Amino acid sequence: MSRFIEIVEVGPRDGLQNEAVVVSVEDRIELIRRLEAAGARRTEVVSLVNPKRVPQMAGAEEIMAGLPKAEGRSRIGLVLNAKGFDRAVEAGVDEANISLAASDGFAQANSGMTVAQQLDMVAEIAERAHNFAGSGAGGPRLSATVSTVWGCPFDGEVSVEQVASVVARLAELKIPEIALADTIGAGDPWAVTRKVEAAKKAAPDATLRLHFHDTRNTGLANAYAGVEAGVSVLDASVGGLGGCPFAPGATGNIGTEDLVYMLHRGGFETGYDLEALIETARWIGGKIGKAPASRLSRAGGFPKPRA
Ligand code: ZN
Questions:
Q1: By C-alpha distance, which of 171, 165, 182, 247 is closest to 219?
Q2: Is the dihedral of CA 201, 202, 207, 209 positive or negative?
Q3: Maximum pairwise Cα distance, the chain
Q4: Can you give the three-state secondary structure of 88-99, one letter per residue?
Q5: Separation CA 221–CA 215 (nearest Å)
Q6: Whole-angstrom distance, CA of residue 77 vs CA of residue 96
Q7: Which of 31, 63, 93, 102 is 20 to 30 A (C-alpha) from 57?
């Protein structure tokens, strides 16, 4: 059997949040439906943050209400604090993804907290989640995404030790899945190898996940390095939706269809239908009035032999 790589689709949240055009709740629900039909099993669908700060993500509750529970489909909500976690529970997300940073500069800018304070916030959420589970009420599964692992727009370089210490604390808090994110797309594949190895040592029992932005054209090379280092969960966004708030005009996450193409050609399984993804990329491109940045949405898949 070939190795399965799980791709978490982040276009409806990380992608659209960083696009200038605000997409309606109906179209966002339609995007999620199309992505799930194309094979997405885990999709980042909403952000439980103040809509005044992020107007692109307004309507989280409406989106969740418009997505009936579906077997084998997990909807993820991003949370930045305990209040957001409570909202995520209320809205009925399947997974709450807690966002924190590896660098103080980014943590301060994003949340007004230091990294140490953000880790205390994660501890508070972990306790609430634990209580939910203990009461039999269920509650969402937890994951944490560590931003700025490969560079910070405020502090510059982020060391392997810094990353390892944050990951070790998340492991102590028993966060079952830890994502390392190249928030500003500054990473290179060799640094991916080093930081993945350090994270594995720091959190041997956690599932590692990787999140790359293609800001500087190293996204797919970084994904390759991550897979080679043994990571089997990666984020991507359909059409390469999104951008980078610290690099105006930059492209977004690695395109789901680009990653799927590379992995399928390499003999991996993903569960995605490449043609359906390309169609979805073009559809959402039409909604935001922009041709998708992904290469596959332009070139198509592997050529069929001409008759
Ligand atoms: Zn991102």
A1: 182
A2: negative
A3: 63
A4: HHHHCCCEEEEE
A5: 12
A6: 5
A7: 102
Q: Per CATH, is 6-299 categorized as 3.10.350.10?
A: no
Q: What is the pTM of this model?
A: 0.96
CA–CA separation, 137 vs 131, rounded Å? Answer: 9
Q: Give the number of other Cβ atoms within 10 Å of residue 1's Cβ.
A: 4
**pLDDT for res 164:** 98
The domain limits of the chain are 6-299
Rounded to the nearest angstrom, the distance between the alpha carbon of 78 and the centre of ligand 1 is: 11
**Radius of gyration (Cα) for the chain, nearest Å?**
18
Tokens (6 digits) for 298: 């332009």
- Taking only the tens place, the pLDDT of each residue in 67-124 is 999 999 999 999 999 999 999 999 999 999 999 999 999 999 999 999 999 999 999 9
Q: Ligand 1 centroid to 137 CA: how many Å?
A: 31
Question: Which pLDDT does position 1 carry in this prediction?
Answer: 67
Burial of 123 (0-12, 13-18, 19+ CB in 10 A): middle
Give the count of beta carbons closer than 10 Å to the beta carbon of residue 272: 25
For residues 212 and 184, what is the distance between their CA atoms, to the nearest angstrom? 9
At residue 14's C-alpha, the angle toward residues 13 and 17, to 5°, is: 75
From ligand 1's centre to the CA of 217, what distance in Å?
15
Ligand 1 centre and the CA of 210: distance in Å?
10
